[in-house]
Amino acid sequence: MQLIFFDLDGTLLNDASEISVFTRETLYLLSESNIAYTVATGRSRLSAQAIIDGHDFGLPQIYNNGVTVWDPKIQQFTFENLLNSTEILTVIDTAVSQGITPFVHAIENHRHLIFHATPRHDVEKELIEKYFSGIKVRLLPLEALSANSQVTNISMIGVAATINEMWRKFNTHENLIAYSGAALEGKQFVWMDVHNCRASKGAAVTNLKNQLGATSIMCFGDSDNDLSMFALADESYAPENAKAEIKNSASAVIGSNHEDGIAHFLRERFSL
Q1: Are residues 177 and 119 in the same domain?
Q2: Strand ranges (E), 9-96
Q3: Calpha distance 151→108 (Å, rounded)
């Protein structure tokens, strides 16, 4: 059994953060040919749900960069490497000291909660009004965060210089890892997700490979959070729009996400 893992943003999704008609038809052809596939994304299940539902993603799905796995058959989450209270406090204090609002993501009783302080910048307010409201997440004040909350990650957005400085600090911390990238809100802004350092797509992919009895792994990704699964995959492919580091780590570079590069590759690779 060969198992395919798709990153979403910048990879399977086009520049409008959608699965195009051509890619949707390609996923259907994969399913009809009994070729197994699923997702491995930095997104939460809630933010990805509207995008992937209806596209035959019937296998367990990896979210939050490997912290969360959702099994659609039994409608259940499993968690690995959640942030502990000390790590949470470290991230929050660092963000607040830099004038950035941390958004603490947690899952309780299968509900996605986000705890945050009062946003300080317009880009943070826009994130709440246009993005978080669209995925119907429950927003709560940071003071409501309890010591036993299941915190998957802490995200933030801000100008590149500030976020990049924090990114460097978190990635030198012995218990943390941070991923970042260009924000949709404008070229001057950067987003960042912070996790426990043991959390990775690669670890979650390995677990699913063993769980499902897959004999080989093929994966697609475009950013630094995909490197861990590229390192263990039998085949790994980066779209032309991917970061240089991931293209250098890939088995090959294929067409860009906005040109249905993954779908065109799969049709040729599997004669769909």
Answers
A1: yes
A2: 36-39, 61-63, 68-71, 76-79
A3: 9
Residue pLDDT, tens place only, 90-136: 999 999 999 999 999 999 888 899 999 899 999 899 888 877 877 77
Are the beta carbons of 41 and 179 closer than 8 angstroms?
no
φ/ψ of residue 54, rounded to 5: 90, 5
Point out the domain boundary residue: 149, 176, 196: 196
Give one DSSP letter per residue of 91-131, joined into a string: HHHHHHHTT---EEEEEETTEEEEEE----SHHHHHIIIII
105, 112 Cβ separation under 8 angstroms: yes
Do 43 and 92 lie in a common domain? no
Query: In total, how many domains does the chain have?
Result: 2
User: d(Cα 245, Cα 127) in Å, to the nearest integer?
Assistant: 28
Look up the domain containing 163 and give its range: 85-196
Separation CA 258–CA 256 (nearest Å): 6
Higher-confidence residue of 246 and 133: namely 246
SS3 for 35?
A: coil
Span 62-79, pLDDT tens digits: 999 999 999 999 999 999
Among the candidates 169, 196, 223, a domain finishes at 196
